[in-house]
Write a structure and sequence with these properties.
Layout: E1 22-23, E2 26-27, H1 28-38, E3 43-48, H2 52-59, E4 68-73, H3 79-85, E5 95-98, E6 102-104, H4 108-117, E7 122-128, E8 136-140, E9 146-151, E10 162-170, H5 186-197, E11 201-205, E12 210-212, H6 216-227, E13 238-239, E14 244-246, E15 251-252, E16 257-259, E17 262-264, E18 269-270, E19 275-277, E20 280-282, E21 287-288, E22 293-295, E23 298-299, E24 304-305, E25 310-312, E26 315-316, E27 321-322, E28 327-328, E29 333-334, E30 339-340, E31 345-346, E32 351-352, E33 357-358
Parallel strand pairs: 3-4, 7-11, 14-17, 15-18, 16-19, 17-20, 18-21, 19-22, 20-23, 21-24, 22-25, 23-26, 24-27, 25-28, 26-29, 27-30, 28-31, 29-32, 30-33
Antiparallel strand pairs: 1-2, 5-10, 6-12, 7-10, 8-9, 13-14
């Protein structure tokens, strides 16, 4: 399910659907399809709504990625369960459903075996969190059968730290309980209904890596985790040093310093005495001026940094231009095609919307 507008990820998703947001220089959805293929899943339906053309142009019919893709474009949005009901004619056997903003290493093969052994109608992947009071938790018995859903439990009343991980296995017949053509959700609609009916519904507990990338903070954290090796994924490019992957056509000037872990896309230019320190990801076609510093940051494609620019633990979208000696501090997020003048200071946590021009004394948008 990748139809949402990704409002929590803004300003990164004004011009880019969340399915196409780059993770280490490849779209999120490309990582997801490779993960599914490792578990023998290669027939995939994408439910789209927001900016669907971007996804369709990139993936086509899926053949070049070793998968079969079917697209279902919603207008208007139908909610999580409504979106699946909308493609019911394609679902004649047990199937997986995934939220489109979850990055995980849950063992899907083991989860399917768990589902079949218990003859479950619906199996919900569960993952532990440190603070369950900001989530909806799922109570299960010793066999894993779901007994209760509790939305944002108060401190002192928490009985479990297991939350809905956004991955489900469903039997086709449960779709009969979802109204056609109406907005309907799994969390507040279908799952409570199945529980009330007494249908067998189970929670599969997993302690594998799991993160919701729905905010810029979590998006940046995923990059740090991925590059630091906390998740097993491959990176494009040639191995150019300890924890460093560089794609073809990039020009690293003399005296420039690269310190992994980092990935760098095609046709980048890194100026003399510039330093790129991981964990960082630099998209294709980027130019980094002499004496600049990039540390712990994600920079999308075709972004140009002038001489002496400093980026620390921030996210910069595509086609951004940053003038000489400008500092972009921790937690900042710059949307696409932003222009920042020379000798600026973008203070910690600032978000700059796409196409804005930032130059003193004009204030940045918070």
């Amino acid at each position: 399910m990748v139809g949402g507008e990704g409002t929590r990820l803004r300003p990164l998703t004004f011009n880019t659907p969340k399915s196409m947001v780059p993770i280490a220089n490849r779209p999120f959805l490309e990582h997801m399809t490779e993960y599914l293929k490792r578990h023998g899943i290669d027939d995939i339906i994408l439910t789209l709504c927001y900016l669907p053309d971007r996804t369709q142009r990139y993936f086509g019919d899926g053949n070049s990625f070793g998968i079969k893709l079917t697209y279902a474009v919603e207008d208007p949005p139908l909610g999580t369960a409504g979106a699946v009901k909308n493609v019911a004619e394609h679902l004649d056997e047990t199937f997986f459903v995934f939220n489109g903003d979850i990055f995980t290493d849950i063992d899907l093969t083991a989860m399917m075996e768990f589902h079949r052994q218990r003859e479950s109608k619906a199996t919900i992947a569960l993952t532990p969190v440190e603070n369950p009071t900001i989530y909806g938790v799922v109570e299960t018995n010793n066999e894993g059968r779901v007994e209760r859903f509790i939305e944002k439990p108060r401190r002192g009343t928490v009985t479990t730290n297991m939350i809905n991980a956004g991955a489900y296995i469903l039997a086709p017949e449960v779709l009969n309980h979802i109204p056609k053509g109406l907005s309907f959700t799994f969390e507040q609609g279908l799952f409570p209904l199945l529980l009330e009916r007494g249908d067998p519904m189970y929670g599969y507990q997993s302690y594998a890596y799991w993160i919701d990338i729905g905010t810029p903070e979590k998006y940046l954290k995923l990059h740090h985790d991925l590059l630091m090796g906390r998740i097993n994924r491959r990176f494009p490019g040639e191995h150019a040093g300890e924890g460093i992957w560089v794609e073809e056509g990039s020009d690293i000037q003399p005296q420039a310093e690269l310190e992994g872990p980092l990935v760098m896309g095609r046709n980048c230019v890194i100026g003399s005495r510039a330093r790129v320190k991981g964990p960082s990801a630099i998209g294709q076609g980027c130019r980094v001026g002499a004496d600049s510093l990039i540390e712990g940051s994600v920079v999308w494609q075709n972004t140009h940094l002038g001489q002496g620019v400093s980026l620390k633990n921030c996210v910069i979208a595509e086609n951004v231009v940053i003038g000489e000696r400008t500092q972009v501090e921790e937690g900042c997020v710059l949307g696409s095609s932003v222009i920042v003048g020379s000798d600026q200071r973008i203070v910690q946590g600032t978000k700059v919307w796409p196409d804005e021009i930032h130059s003193y004394p004009k204030p940045t948008r918070r």
